[in-house]
Amino acid sequence: MVRIAFFGAGYAGLVSGACFAELGHDVVIRDVVPERIDALRAGKVPFYEPGLDELIAKNAERLTFTLSMEEAVAGSDFLFVAVGTPPTASGDANMSAVWSVIEDLPQDLGAPILVMKSTVPVGTGEKIRAELDRRGLSDVGYASCPEFLAEGTAVRDFMESDRVVVGAFEPAQGEAVAALHDGLDAPVVQMDVPSAEMVKLAANAYLATRISFINEIANVCELVGADVEEVARGMGLDRRIGSRYLRAGIGFGGSCFPKDVSFLKLLAGNSGYNFHLVSSVIEVNELQIRRPVAKVQRHLGSLRGKRVALLGLAFKPDTDDVREAPSRVLAARFLAEGAQVVVWDPVVDAHEFLHGVELAKSAEAALAGADAAVIVTEWPVLRELPWADLRETMRNPLVIDGRNHLDPDTMRAAGYAYEGMGRATSAFAALAETEEPSSNLSR
Ligand SMILES: NC(=O)c1ccc[n+]([C@@H]2O[C@H](COP(=O)([O-])OP(=O)(O)OC[C@H]3O[C@@H](n4cnc5c(N)ncnc54)[C@H](O)[C@@H]3O)[C@@H](O)[C@H]2O)c1
Questions:
Q1: pTM, whole model, 2 decimals?
Q2: Number of continuous H segments (helices) and E segments (strands) in the chain
Q3: Which atom number of ligand 1 is nearest to the Cα of residue 101?
Q4: Residue 190 and residue 175: Cα distance in Å, rounded?
Q5: Quick check: CB of 149 below 6 Å from ligand 1?
Q6: 13 CB less than 6 Å from ligand 1?
Q7: Whether 145 is catalytic
Q8: Which ligand 1 atom is at minimum distance from the Cα of 14?
Q9: Pairing between strand 141-144 and 164-168?
Q10: Ligand 1: which atom is nearest the Cα of residue 15?
Q11: Could you tell me if the CB of 421 is within 6 A of ligand 1?
């Protein structure tokens, strides 16, 4: 049994730490936020991730939590860095938490392997290697092992990984990190450090590209009378294409795609290359998130004084993460148009969501008296609502389905003006598109 230290008890660190405990390793997880460690010691997971509470409880004897750097490193064979790397004002990666871990490492470390799980710009490993050497910590190994889990399905994504990517400067160190994953039925792909760092950015940028691509197809579908749901089904059955990440909607959000795509764009730009495709992916997404505003305006005209219900705040179902969530942009845009905005989400604690927004206790309460509702997150519970009964409670029964989550025929039969994204069957979809009024995006 090896001992693994994790730095960062967030979505990536806590999930992968608990999964390594499930694989039989002894894991100590260090964070710098006392409330987070207190909660974990009390058996409480500080965020919503299905299956994680059970996994932590099941492996309690192999999992410890600490605020102490010394306790984390003592006797640890591997030091996994899983701290946040949020975007800075310039859109580059804020690496301060990563560097604070490196700087806080004690001098008498021995020879563990430092493993980078955080998503970092290509070249980070070389900089950290040089810093470790400069500090006389040449015996400390280094490997990159990017994390590919997705919030909402994180435990399964780790335990049933498609692959594990390990980049190392020394093959033996790469082998040691690869061996940690022995209990997984997944190929381990070993490579050099910069390539492993690039795999993570390229994979997320590719998935984001698929989303922006199908969203543009959806926008064209609305103009030419095609239905993007049918188009995606017909495309996705082609094995060269596949059906995943081909769902049209209001675009991607969350703590990974927006920042990782931006990191790649800026990494390329800072290195002298203009990555046009990735720039377009970002721009398409920024505009896509705002499309429901124009759709509501086409139905209601001026939004001043109109009441708009946003159903779902999390950037996707099965998470409480609202980092870079489309709901934030939509709420701010509707407010800017003078609308009253009421929001509801089944798991997000929305109290600090956005100033000026009303919080509803239930989806039904959000819909009551609303002039329009926007499906922002495709929470399954939204499909189960008694829509036919709820129509009477709305001041105006207009539903803009930003995730193509509801059945258009059922909604129309229940008396709603229903509009999805790229769904030609919409009574309003054939209306010619005018230029987005929101073209004042700062780029
Ligand atoms: N969230 C995901 O789905 C996901 C998936 C793959 C990769 N990643 C990457 O993993 C990294 C972490 O993401 P996250 O979503 O888990 O972030 P997070 O913000 O949820 O968690 C980061 C944690 O690190 C802690 N921290 C900060 N400084 C620390 C220090 N010096 N020592 C120990 N802990 C410290 C914070 O208190 C926080 O609890 C990022 O680089 C992200 O891009 C995230």
A1: 0.93
A2: 16, 14
A3: 31
A4: 8
A5: yes
A6: yes
A7: no
A8: 16
A9: antiparallel
A10: 16
A11: no
CA of 257 to the centre of ligand 1 (A): 14
User: How many whole angstroms separate alpha carbon 296 and alpha carbon 354?
Assistant: 21
Whose tokens are 């800075």? That residue is 88
147 CB less than 6 Å from ligand 1? yes
278 backbone dihedrals φ, ψ, rounded to 5°: -65, -35
Per-residue pLDDT of the chain (443 residues; tens, 9 = 90+): 899 999 999 999 999 999 999 999 999 999 999 999 999 999 999 999 999 999 999 999 999 999 999 999 999 999 999 999 999 998 889 999 999 999 999 999 999 999 999 999 999 999 999 999 999 999 999 999 999 999 999 999 999 999 999 999 999 999 999 999 999 999 999 999 999 999 999 999 999 999 999 999 999 999 999 999 999 999 999 999 999 999 999 999 999 999 999 999 999 999 999 999 999 999 999 999 999 999 999 999 999 999 999 999 999 999 999 999 999 999 999 999 999 999 999 999 888 788 899 999 999 999 999 999 999 999 999 999 999 999 999 999 999 999 999 999 999 999 999 999 999 654 444 444 443 433 333 32
Which pair of structure tokens corresponds to residue 58?
């099941």
